[in-house]
User: Fold this.
Amino acid sequence: MTAIRVVVQGAYGKMGLETVGAVCGDDGMELVGAASRRGSLGDAYALPDGSGDVPLSNSLADVLAGADVVVDFTNAEGAMSAVRAATAGGANVVTGSTGLSETQLEEAGRLAEDSGRCVIVAPNFALGAVLLIHLAGVAAPFFDYADLTEVHHEAKLDAPSGTALAIARAAAAARGTPFVAPAAETETLAGTRGGTLDGVVIHSGRMTGRVAHHELVFGALGQTLALRHDSINRESFMPGVLLAIRRSTEMTGLTVGLENLLGLN
Assistant:
């Protein structure tokens, strides 16, 4: 079987480094290039097992030749640049970058369709987190209140997380009407009650020692139901990333959410 040829954009980031290691450790995949702001045309990216190196550049277009899939872990702007370059160069895209707007997703879908390529956008690649989103939709119709807490590492700049928004939207869509979100009569510290999305109250925290934590608590008369997922390290995301890489070679168009690859929808 021919190996899937992969390029990683954001190759020196925490998720990029983890992805490089996972791709290099998979017998069915081959890392053929790396892109990073730290590189320039003509540089080389050393493979983690010491077996050699691959081309490195600060421009994805420079290292796309022969690639089947581009994996992107940068930001919304970087993800869209990857989609534009990869689809034009005949490669599929798997991105975990969050914060893409509806307009950007529409552009990504259009580029994927026009090129006959696949673009997979996933707010979270941890299978447990994807299941939490699914279970939130199962439980939501039976409860009146919903409170969601997410805590990530200190370097994560956006809040709430893309996964938290996906959880809240899944719960609200399944319930059909907004949850009850009582307002504080007196808020002695501004922002203490958190933000709300369709009545789901969301609290965000950032601290060292965390990777990703999400806990959704539903409430009804005399009872609560808690759904919690923790990623202990970034290895937890790699089975989902490798799954998306493989499936991208079998699909076309835009897919948003790993649940669509797991048969949960």
Observations:
- DSSP finds six helices and 13 strands in the chain.
- Residues 4-121+235-261 form a domain with the Rossmann fold fold (CATH 3.40.50.720).
- The helical segments are 14-24, 76-88, 102-115, 127-139, 162-175, 238-248.
